[in-house]
Write a structure and sequence with these properties.
CATH architecture: 3-Layer(aba) Sandwich
Number of domains: 1
Distance between the termini: 48 Å
Number of strands: 5
Number of helices: 7
Largest sheet: 5 strands, parallel
Low-confidence stretches: none
Shape: globular
Order of helices and strands: HEHEHHEHEHEH
């Protein structure tokens, strides 16, 4: 096996998908950033959730908002629903793993908040349950998925925003998810700070 060639192919595939997705995703990303800024200006908070790599992306995104991205600014109200092991394990043990995010959304969510729901396949049952819980609480959703979006489009409201990466490979989808999250952070900062 030629590892150098394989690595080069991974770089090439990732770069190609990002460029290929740019036109399709730029509009939904811009709309999501505007919705997030609206949420923050109304003293709402952004809750993020996902499993595995998407859990890491949720935490990464929340950290960029709560601390800072690339510009100095006050912290923004965001947190990941994936970080409290006592809460996650108690819900999973006492009820069901499918409820680990939805119970938190119902307990912590308020009308002006927003849920960032990340699922590479769009089929993660606990993420779909969180979306339904958000709707029960009057909370808008930004969904970040891949492939065909899975079951996510079936549970989203028309007012929600769906950013779906047009690819099959989990690794490639997650790479575009990270770029998307960085685009959101940059756009939020630009909108809040008045950067041209």
């Amino acid at each position: 096996m030629d590892l150098i060639n394989r690595i080069s192919e991974n770089f090439s595939e990732s770069a190609h998908l990002k460029l290929q997705s740019m036109d399709a995703l730029a509009g939904p990303i811009a709309a999501a950033a505007e919705r997030m800024v609206q949420c923050l200006k109304l003293d709402g908070k952004i809750m993020a959730c996902g499993n595995g790599g998407s859990a890491a992306d949720s935490q990464h995104f929340a950290a960029e908002l709560l601390n800072r991205f690339e510009m100095e600014r006050p912290g923004l109200a965001a947190f990941a629903l994936t970080t409290d092991t006592s809460t996650l394990t108690s819900i999973a043990n006492d009820y069901d793993y499918d409820q680990v995010f939805s119970k938190q959304v119902r307990a912590l969510g308020q009308t002006n908040d927003l849920l960032l729901a990340i699922s590479t396949s769009g089929n993660s049952r606990n993420v779909l349950a969180a979306v339904l819980a958000a709707h029960e609480c009057g909370i808008d959703v930004v969904a970040l998925t891949g492939r065909s979006g899975g079951k996510m489009p079936e549970v989203l409201h028309p007012s929600d925003i769906h950013i779906c990466v047009p690819a099959q490979s989990t690794a490639r989808i997650q790479e575009v998810h990270l770029l998307t999250l960085h685009c959101l952070c940059d756009a939020i900062d630009c909108l809040l700070l008045g950067v041209e």
